[in-house]
Amino acid sequence: MPRYRAIVAYDGTDFSGWQVQPSKRTVQGELEKAVNRMAKNPEQPIRVQGSGRTDAGVHALGQVAHFDLPFDIPESGVRKGLATMLPFDIEIKKVEKVDADFHAQYSAHTKTYQYRLSNRAFRDPFKRNYTGYWPRRIDPSKIEMAINDYLGEHDWQSFAASGFQAKTTIRTVTAVKFMNDVEHEELIFEFTGTGFLYNQIRIMVGVLLEIGGGSRPVDDIPRLLAQKDRQQARLTAPASGLYLKSVDY
Amino acid sequence: MPRYRAIVAYDGTDFSGWQVQPSKRTVQGELEKAVNRMAKNPEQPIRVQGSGRTDAGVHALGQVAHFDLPFDIPESGVRKGLATMLPFDIEIKKVEKVDADFHAQYSAHTKTYQYRLSNRAFRDPFKRNYTGYWPRRIDPSKIEMAINDYLGEHDWQSFAASGFQAKTTIRTVTAVKFMNDVEHEELIFEFTGTGFLYNQIRIMVGVLLEIGGGSRPVDDIPRLLAQKDRQQARLTAPASGLYLKSVDY
Question: Is B55 a catalytic residue?
Fold first, then answer.
């Protein structure tokens, strides 16, 4: 049973997220259908394990998944075979054979998410599913100043969606990046970390938008983190702007 | 009754084309709903007249339409008012007051269409609705040579969809353009003309793809035009790559 690791891109618009759910169209569900068809539907169905879930409407440029095939096929053959069986909103960007102890979720070291925001007075119809939309004027220099306050190990309780349950809310952000793409009227945020709570990135972006728009002070992030209160950060940027960019092992 | 001209962009993916059709979602239908709501639903419904139809899945960057409002509103107010009432896949890019004899269809001088083709081995999920897809290797220099043969006044019978009816199939192409966007793995075609037959642009692109791929000689376009036979040109590029870029008056 050779194990394969696949790098997967998908347009999340028409999916109910990554994870298999009964009678819903999900990325994992479509991948499992394709892998099992390629393997001629073995008696024991093949599971496809991702690095983690993404929500409905969230995209991926570099989601990582692993699966075991009942026979040995060259990597390029797996990629081409899956391409013919997958719907057009999923692309397998790369397939590699990996050791049997590789696990897409447990072996992951850090993940990088990108958030794209369309910052113009009117909505661009071609970006409605691929960016968040924010018509108000933003001062990019304020965001540049504030974003570094996210770096490091913190208790992210103030940035967790209500109802979210986890053993610990301590996570480490190892890198942040902010780009003001004037030509495309987009603001692009990137966050790398050891893990993120449910909706954490979208709340982190929401806080930066309030800072950039002047409704929250530039130095408010350390205070928010210290509060450990999920009522503090209220604006959650929409799913359509969020991309799982890469997973590092 | 002041007359307004609007420049309209739309993502054609979720529309059954431009023209109003009973129980179908169309761009004209959505525009008429929004204009009539903005005008407080007058007894005599306001019609929105476009420069011409676009098919299901075809996009517009600069469709032009006109309509008459029962009262005088500033141009910027019309734009903002419509923005709040239109679905997110339509954007009004500009509104201007025009003379009462302006007519979006009859006053049009030329139209420019753009065709975007994704030329890579695997489908990009983010481009599936916004480009045509052609995995085979293309020689761009062959397309560059051939495309100029479309210029000028011709009888386009060989480039008309079967079933198409028109008084005359003579049209003039006034400009052509071809760009090989290596960075984005896209081929971009542009055609300006006094008018185009049903599916003409998509068949013109199909012929250029056959020429670029070597299955049709580089000098085949003059022969095709001379044949005046719609069985000659068989490949119709998909609607998803086609954009109505601008209309000139």
Answer: yes
